[in-house]
């Protein structure tokens, strides 16, 4: 080792030079001299780990990587190398954790050097393969136990959440939260004995809707501003006819002129258990969404009721997202969802989309609970005044 001077920094440079020449034993000697001279930072221990790896000294390599990360927990080359160590050992879960940490740090670098970029791309590809193998392993085991069969839909949703294929959305009502209700995004129509009769009236309701569209007296922008409420211009929809409404019942009060024009629609709703809160609900309306219009993500005012749609005119490229599930409407088939969970809707077609909207109590509430919720919200209205809400 006579080539090195007494300057300890030359030991470090010599160690890395020896590594590049493919002389790991020489590199080990140089790095150990640097460490003895007090220059044992994360880079030096990482260099020593690389030399040990070249010699196949696995335990010594791991010990050196641990020393590097003890000195700098965010030392990216050592995080990647330790992930590689676990990958060679067959412990992909440990490898994935180190790769994930390195990628998180790498995302903070605006323009990583070419070699680092290649390393980050390599470990990202490895993580993708780990995820695919992991999902295949779980799916194989679970398919034998009935995954994909009728009755396993809730578990399939849970599996998607576990694997990161869906995001978790929960009830976040804007005003009133009723505790201990299930977190269900869409309620299947089969749960409601009133749905078939209402659906059978779809042709009559569509006929009345078309008459309203032809003579739009009473149709107005859904989000109309009022002088006693601040204006926020929510995504340009305030006072915007692109999203319009023809109310049959508004804030619990029938709109007589409009109901006279739609007697068959009102008759079809007679046996639906509408959510009745004096001064607030139900709201029953034809919702008219013009081509190219999107209703932005939002949450309803409480989680004790469901919003229901009877789709009437549904061109292609229209959909409703509730939480982490997106569904298209089928004309004449009821859709019910919890609007206290974030939701949005859009019409990207070139035609009008229209649904009949109404609200019903959640089936999990007892009659006593419904009365108490109704009385409470009515009392709030009496105390502080009444106002509309955003229901689609």
> Percent of residues in beta strands?
15-25%
CATH class category label of the largest domain: Mainly Beta
Count of runs of 4 or more consecutive helical residues? 13
- CATH fold node name of the largest domain: Jelly Rolls
Run of helices and strands:
HHHHHHHHEHHEEEHHEEEEEEEEH
Q: CATH homologous superfamily of the largest domain - what is it?
A: B-lactam Antibiotic, Isopenicillin N Synthase, Chain
Helix and strand content put the structural class at alpha+beta
Categorize the overall geometry: elongated
Mean pLDDT: 92
- Low-confidence segments, ≥5 residues, pLDDT <50? none
Number of domains in the coordinates? 2
> Largest beta sheet, briefly?
8 strands, antiparallel
- Calculate Rg over CA atoms: 32 Å
- Work out the number of β strands: 12
